[in-house]
Design a protein that fits this description.
- A hairpin with a 5-residue loop joins β7 (221-227) and β8.
- The radius of gyration is 21 Å and the shape is globular.
- By secondary structure, it is of the alpha+beta class.
- The strands form 4 sheets. A 4-stranded mixed beta sheet has the order 9-8-7-10.
- The protein contains 11 helices and 11 strands.
Length: 266
C-alpha cells in the first residue's frame, strides 16, 4: 500500500533531502519544483515510470497510438514494476501504424490495435494467467469471470508468460471469424499476423481496460494457440461486467460468438 508524502514524517523528508543533496540537487532545484508546474510534472512523470527515459521513437509511437498503448511508464505507475533500463525497441514503423487496418475498412492499424510491452516477470514473479488472477481478484474490475476456474491447473495458466517484447494486437477478434472451424479461421489471417497465446490475449484485455476503461470483446471470444489437457482449443473473451472469461472449444466446432484472436508478427 502506498504511503502519502505528508505521512512520511520530517525525519524521512530530511533523509530524502540529504540523498538528493549528495546527487547535486540544491535549493534552487527545489524552488523550481515549487514554482514551475511543467518542470514539476516532468520530474513526477520520470519518477512514476521508475526512472526510465522514453526514447524519441517511443514518444512518436505514443502520439500515433493515443491511449492504445501500455508501455514501461504504465507498468511502473500502475503495477509498481521494476523494469530493466534497456527496454526493447518498438519493432513497427510509423508507416506500419498509419497503414490501413487489414480488418476494418477506413481505419488504420493504430486506430484498431493495442500495443503493450509484454513482461515475463513482474518484480521477480512469473506473470502468468494465475498471477493475473492474484493481481485482479473477482472483487473489482478488471476481474475474471470465476474465482474457481476450470483451468487453474492447466499449463497455459500456471507456467506460460509473455515474452519481454512489444506486442501489437487487434483490440477485437478477427471480423467475421465467428461460426467457423479453427482451420477456416486461420485462413482469414493476413500473412503478417499470427494466432496469439492465451497469456498474450489475457494481458492485452486487462491492460487495455486499465488504460482506456473500456471492455475488449464484451460479446465475443477469440480462439488462441493454446490447447488444454482435455484437447480443446482455448478461447479468451466475453469481457464485461461479470469479468474476463477463459474457456475451451473444439477446433471443428462452430459458434456465433467464438471467433479468432490475432497478433501482428514482430
Amino acid at each position: 500500500m502506498s504511503t502519502s508524502l505528508t505521512a512520511e514524517g520530517l525525519g524521512k523528508v530530511f533523509e530524502t533531502l540529504r540523498v538528493l543533496e549528495r546527487e547535486g540537487i540544491n535549493a534552487e532545484h527545489l524552488a523550481r519544483l515549487r514554482s514551475d508546474k511543467d518542470y514539476a510534472k516532468r520530474v513526477a512523470e520520470f519518477m512514476l515510470r521508475g526512472g526510465i527515459e522514453s526514447s524519441a521513437d517511443l514518444r512518436i509511437v505514443r502520439a500515433i497510438m493515443g491511449d492504445r498503448i501500455f508501455g514501461p511508464e504504465e507498468w511502473s505507475a500502475l503495477y509498481g514494476a521494476r523494469l530493466p533500463k534497456r527496454i526493447p525497441a518498438f519493432p513497427w514503423s510509423e508507416d506500419a501504424l498509419k497503414a490501413p487496418s487489414p480488418f476494418h475498412k477506413g481505419k488504420t492499424v493504430a486506430e484498431t490495435h493495442f500495443a503493450f510491452l509484454g513482461l515475463a516477470k513482474l518484480n521477480g514473479k512469473p506473470l502468468t494467467i494465475n498471477k493475473w488472477r492474484e493481481l485482479h481478484p473477482t472483487t473489482a474490475q478488471p476481474r475474471f469471470y470465476s474465482d474457481n476456474p476450470w483451468y487453474r491447473n492447466e499449463q497455459f495458466a500456471t507456467d506460460a508468460t509473455c515474452e519481454f517484447k512489444w506486442y501489437l494486437m487487434p483490440l477485437e477478434i478477427v471480423p467475421n471469424s465467428e461460426r467457423k472451424t479453427y482451420r477456416e479461421q486461420l485462413a482469414l489471417l493476413p500473412e503478417d499476423y499470427e494466432v496469439p497465446t492465451a497469456i498474450a490475449e489475457v494481458t492485452k484485455d486487462i491492460l487495455a481496460f486499465r488504460k482506456t476503461g473500456t471492455y475488449v470483446n464484451p460479446n465475443r471470444y477469440g480462439r488462441v494457440i493454446d490447447v488444454s489437457s482435455l484437447g480443446v482449443r482455448v478461447y479468451v473473451g466475453g469481457f464485461g461486467r461479470v469479468g474476463l472469461d477463459v474457456g475451451g472449444y473444439g477446433d471443428g466446432d462452430r459458434d456465433g460468438s467464438v471467433g479468432l484472436a490475432a497478433a501482428r508478427k514482430s
